[in-house]
Amino acid sequence: MTTEATVAADTAGTRPIKWSYMDHWRANGPRGPYDQWHSRQTMTRFLRQVAAVGFDAIDTFDFRFWQILEQYGSVANYQEFVQEQGLERIVNTFHGVYYDPERYAPEVPATHDTILEDFKVTLDRWSGIQLDNIIVMPGSRYFDEQGVTDDGLKHAAEVWGRVGELTQQYGVNLTCHHEFYGGIRTRAQIDAFYGYADPRYVKFFVDTAQHCIADVDPVAVYEAHHERVSDFHFKDTRTKGVNEDYRIWPDAELSAVTTEKWFYEMGTAEGLVDFESMMRSVRDHGYTGWISVEHDKADKIGGDYSESTAIARWYAKNVLDRIYQEERA
Questions:
Q1: Which of 236, 223, 221 shows the shortest CA–CA distance to 191?
Q2: Residue range 90-139, pLDDT digits in tens
Q3: Which three-class secondary structure state does DSSP give residue 27?
Q4: Cβ–Cβ under 8 Å, residues 212 and 273
Q5: Could you give the CA distance from residue 104 to residue 97 in angstroms, rounded to a whole number?
C-alpha cells in the first residue's frame, strides 16, 4: 500500500484531532438568500460541501429540533441523513436561549428551577443520539461595564454545576462559551467563574474570536483552564471590542455601530488570533478530540460561506494539523 493510500485509509477515529463544522450557512439562490434548513435538497448540498473539503462531522443548535422533526422525523433520523452524506455524526449542540432576569438567568437563583426543567426537556429531545457537549452562555447579556457581579458568578456556577450533573447522566458535557457581549466576558470574570464552578460538571468551550474581541488572549485563557476545556470554536476576528459596542442592545454582533463584521475565517493575514500558538498549546497540553470551525455571519460585507469554509479547512489541514504533528520542542 502506498503512503498516500495508507493516509487515506486512516479513519477519522484514529486521528488525535478531528474537525467539526458549526452549521452556520447561507447561500444565494434565484429567490435570494437561503440557509441549509430550507429543504432536504439544500441540506444535502450543505453537508456534501462540508464533507468534500474534509470536515469529519457537524455541530448544530438545539433550536433546530423542530425543523429536524418536521423534515426528518427524529434527531436519530437526521443524524443518519448526515452520515449518508459522508460525515461521522453530530458532535455538539448549542443551547440558544433568550436570557431574562425575570424568567431565565443563571445569575438569578429564582430562575434556576426553570433552567433545570428546561434542560431535562432538552436532553430528552436529543437522547436519540450521543452528543459530546451541550454548549451554553454561562451568564446573561449584561450591558453595564461591571457585568455579572461576584455573587452572580457564584449563582451561575452553582446552577451550571447542577445542570452539568444532569447532562452527564446522558453522557454529555455541559460546557460554557463566553460571548464578547456576555456578562462573563473579561479574563477576571472567567477566572472567578471557573474558580467557583465544579470542574467535574462545568466544562469550558474556548471560542478564539469571542475571547480576542473581549481583549482576552485565547491562548492564555486556554492554558490557564486547559484541564476543563472540552472543545473549541476556531474562528478569527480583525477587531477588539475595546469601545462600548459590546453593550448595544439587543445583539452586539448585529447592532454594533462601529464594527460591521466581527468574525472571519482563520487562515487570512488580517486576523488577530494567533492560531499557530493556539494549536501548539492544544498539542502540548495533550488535547485530543474535536475542534469545531465556526463561521458566524460570514456573508456580511460581501463574504461567502463556501469560500470561508474552504479557506479555513485548507488552513486546518496544511498548517494546524502539521503543527499538531510536530514533535514538542
A1: 221
A2: 999 999 888 888 999 999 999 999 999 999 999 999 999 999 999 999 99
A3: strand
A4: yes
A5: 8
